[in-house]
């Protein structure tokens, strides 16, 4: 088994055709929110799973392996930690 780009999940090579891989790797800047010059948050659907992808990019729109894709449940859990994280940041 091989790891698919953007570390979404492990799948067999035969499950992915070139066109599907290209579509999965392309990021439309209009669907992304910029965190900084090189970091973006993108909401996308992959294999019928809604994901929040927080990732670093290079050359404008090429994704790197540096990032994380969260399912909706993981995203909601992360959001529930916001007040605690803000509190800890104030202590620093």
CATH class call? Mainly Beta
Which overall shape is indicated by the principal axes computed on the Cα atoms?
flat
Detail the poorly predicted runs. 1-17
Distance between the termini: 44 Å
Which superfamily, in CATH terms, is the homologous superfamily?
A: Transcriptional Coactivator Pc4, Chain A
CATH topology: Transcriptional Co-activator pc4, Chain A
The run of helices and strands is EEHEEEEHH
Radius of gyration: 15 Å
Strand content: 35-45%
Secondary structure tally, helices: 3
Structural notes for this entry:
The structure is a single chain. 29% of the residues lie in helices and 38% in strands. The protein contains 3 helices and 6 strands, in the order ββαββββαα. The termini are far apart. By secondary structure, it is an alpha+beta fold. A hairpin with a 6-residue loop joins strand 1 (2-3) and strand 2.
């Amino acid at each position: 088994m091989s790891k698919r780009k953007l570390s979404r999940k492990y799948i067999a090579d035969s499950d992915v055709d070139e066109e599907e891989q290209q579509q999965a790797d392309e990021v439309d800047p209009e669907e992304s929110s910029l965190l900084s010059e090189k970091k973006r948050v993108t909401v996308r659907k992959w294999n019928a799973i809604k994901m929040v992808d927080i990732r670093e990019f290079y050359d404008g729109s090429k994704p790197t392996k540096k990032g994380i894709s969260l399912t909706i449940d993981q995203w909601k859990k992360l959001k529930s930690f916001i007040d605690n994280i803000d509190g800890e940041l104030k202590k620093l």
